[in-house]
Amino acid sequence: MSPPTSDESPGLRTGTLTTADISFFVVSAAAPLTVMAGVAPIAIVLGGIGAPAGYLLAGITLTVFAVGFTTMSRHVKSGGAFYAYITRGLGKPLGIAAALLAMLGYNGMEIGVYGLLGTATADTAHSLWGMDIPWLPVSLAGLLLIWYGGFRSIDFGAKLLGVLLLAETGILVLLAGGVLIEGGANGLSLASFTPGNVLVPGSAAVLAFAFTAFTGFESTVIYRREARDPARTVPRATYIAVCFLGLFYAFIVWTVIQAFGDDKVVEAAAGDTGGLFFAAITTYVGGWAADLMHVFIVTSVLASLLAFHNAINRYGLALAEEGVLPPVFGKVHPRHRSPYVAGTAQTVLGLAVVLGFAAAGADPYTQLLLWVNTPGGIALMALQLLAALAIPFYFRRVRHDEGVLRTVVAPVVAAVLLAGAIVLVVSKIDVFTGASTTVNTVLVSLVPGVFLLGLLLAYRLRRTRPEVYARFAAEPSDPGELTCPHPTSSSSTPASATPSSPAPPPSPSMAD
Description:
Layout: H1 19-30, H2 32-38, H3 40-47, H4 51-73, H5 82-90, H6 92-111, H7 113-129, H8 135-151, H9 154-182, H10 195-198, H11 203-212, H12 230-260, H13 265-271, H14 276-284, H15 287-322, H16 340-359, H17 364-397, H18 404-427, H19 429-433, H20 437-464, H21 466-471
């Protein structure tokens, strides 16, 4: 693709990301090493040796969701991803509300993690060098670093995340290899997957933790415009991400259970929750590997921050193109082809939140991380539920050749399972936050509150800016993923689009 001329506004760099690149973005957002070393021991304490099955069940549920989700991605090419799907299936008011919910979700998941960056770096410095460093300067440096990563081109981010992801998954594979070679503490056992150990009183809490461990996998569709052959790369990356995470999480948790033995692991996890993985890798690999794990937890957090930052920037760009956000947020850097204004605004928002919590004397982990992440995670799960509900409604209203399994059965099953998952998470909210009932009520209420605000915004747009409302989540005038100004082939045009027209007309599902 030739660079834009001086009279041409630059756009995102199309045809850049491969399946592997997109997979790196979404798996990095989940921060596998941080989830395993920081959260999995709690799941073991709550659910016993059946904890690995919880991650498998969550992975199966989200794979079912991915069936309909990726099917719709072949038909809806708008850069709005979640909110575009919901608009097409459930109407513009719900779609606009979903757009605000997406901004809450992704910002919440990203900004809260700056608290974790500060504490993880401080813990690493203390463990390796005996140094005590304050968390705030680390978090502020992280804001600057992540801003720069988002400012650079998308392929720069993909390469960087690829390296960081290989490091964090590699150290976990090294741990697993050491346990398997040694045969664990008492020989290898599959008791973790027997019904008697899976169906225990703590299983609900394990499932709640397991679902949150997949956060961000659905963001594959956000990179559609920058993907090579998005009709193939986006679905492939989605399936790779969710299947890899489900299997990898279950395997790693199982190997750690083997490291201590079925009869001793719960006691070990309860006695040293934060040190369980470090103790295991020290025993089966060596102290040097534990030191590497400390370092890679910091890089894991950085990778997650960058992945979410890139996703938020593209949502901001899409909403600016829709006319919902000011046009300045839609500016793309002429050289790096990144949404740099949206990225700068997101960094400023993160800075304000981090400084606000610091000024209030809040704890960076128990308050900045957990209080900001919690509504973000619930918001993203709510978006998944709305998207699952939107899929069968969309395919009822358009002509297509997709099967009923993809367009009705899988989305309906996913919607039921996701609704149950949200109930589980909300019911166990005190386990996630450790906060008072009042605080938890406020955190959970933010999600329906922002959604209601989005509905009010939708009705205001319809009344005061009807032209913005009318074109909200409309299909682009060309397929978007092509690198030339006009389509040269209709072979990849979905049945619901009209290739001879400059822009497909709104379907009935987009009516008021």
